[in-house]
Amino acid sequence: MSEQQDKQGKQGKQGRGATIIIRVIACLIILLIGFGGFTFLKGKKKAPVQEKQVESVLRVEAVAATFKDVAVQIEAHGELRSIRMVEIAAEVAGSIVEVHPRLQTGEVIAEGELLFAIDDRDYHSEYESNKIRLAILQRDKEISTKEFERVRTLFEKNKVGTEAGVEKAEREANSSADRLAQVQHAMTRADIKLERCKVFAPFTCRITSKKIEKGQYVAPGKIVLGLADDSVLELEVPLDSRDAFQWLQFVKSKRDKPAATGAWFASVKPVHCEVAWTENPKNKAIGILNRISSFDEKTRTVKVVLQVDSKQFAKQNRPMPLVSGMFCRVAIPGESMKQVVELPRWAVSFEDNVYIIRDGRLETVAVQVVRVQNNKAYISKGLKPGDMVITTRLVNPLERSLVQVIKTANPVSKVK
């Protein structure tokens, strides 16, 4: 039994060895077939075509940097107002007996025309009564004065009478003079009241408010009319204090320094400024810079005042000129910027950098911006005459990128 079992064990081991050999041979055959297939397919594959790499080019517009002097224009906004606004109050009591036929809000009444009249009969009667009394008291004064002189002469020269008598005559003369003076003052007051019963236009005025009607009773001090003088309009506009200090034109002394005016700003030059209504820019006029009115410590602004003469509207026969209450834009000529380069605002980054073309490639240059106005930026430092400055709006371009100029605003000089 043991021999038979040993024989069967040897046969089992031989069978397993044969199975392993078969599996190894099968794997080798599969690998050979796969390698052959890979080699076959590799032979069929064509090598890719080698293309030459070309650097991309930025197509831009550019201008040649040119230095020049540029006049500053300070822009601001403000509301037009009449140079004089007057409120008329009744100065005497009484009933209104007469009013101007055109006494309505918005009407323009010429200087010297009657605006309204108050019943003056009481004041006229008072004046006439005092006038009669004045004639009587003048005669009384003459008599008492003569009597005083007579009594005094008799006493001093002839020793007739007494000193008490002289003093009594003097008191009577003084009393008569005092009564006369009182009546004269009463007549003057009555005359003034008579004059105040009629109110005339103090200047050619526009009626801004009306609180009076014929037959109405008015008391002294009551405001009955509002008047405006539109012959000269004023426009007060705030300017940034730095703008005012750097660019506003002041009257200068012989030594080319601002003329001293004490503890306040020097006088401004009366330059001509354009004033335009914001709602209709075609409706414009010429104003003259007049003065600095105030400094606002909260906003750090300097308020300047312009005056607009309404005569220019009459000459142009405008049906709708600039009037009080309109919100206007003003352009004030300032000092000149010396030797600056003018560029579009978008050609300068927020970091005050510009892009120039050097040897056909883009370079970033830091510059100093003096001022920005009318969508233009003015450069004082950082550029050289003839530098080609890129004016196309670029966002974070790659430094040293290849550049092609497709349009120039100024004659192009040879770029070094």
From TrEMBL:
It comes from Desulfotalea psychrophila. NCBIfam families: RND_mfp. It holds the Pfam family BSH_RND. Belongs to the membrane fusion protein (MFP) (TC 8.A.1) family. It comes from the Bacteria. Residues 84-222 form the Multidrug resistance protein MdtA-like barrel-sandwich hybrid domain. The chain crosses the membrane at residues 20-41. This is Efflux RND transporter periplasmic adaptor subunit.
